[in-house]
Amino acid sequence: MQSLFIFIERQKGSPKELVQYVCENDEKPLDAFALLLVEAAMENLPKLNVVLRAYANQTKYEKMAPINKALLLLGMTEIKYFATPPVVVINEYVEIAKVLGEETSAGFVNGVLDAFQRNLS
Length: 121
What we know:
Layout: H1 2-10, H2 15-25, H3 32-43, H4 45-55, H5 66-81, H6 86-100, H7 105-120
Helix pairs in contact: 1-2, 1-5, 2-3, 3-5, 4-5, 5-6, 5-7, 6-7
């Protein structure tokens, strides 16, 4: 999540560089799943941003908190391109939003990811 957050804020860096940077700062080995997830999100970022704008239409994209953008983009990526059950993905990102986001982030993340996964079926 931190890797995509950095990319959203700075608009530079490869997925591997960003994930490696975060892992080194946390003194952890390179996380292969995190790398795959960030690669998929960045590869599909233009499409995902369009979808995010559609599902989060009550919030102007430009005013959306960067942490919420990162959580939603990664959650949508994991739901669409990985075999993780959507309920697991939604619960995971809602819990992260409770810790890292604003007071309303968890509900916002839950609503957007739930609407997204319902329309994929």
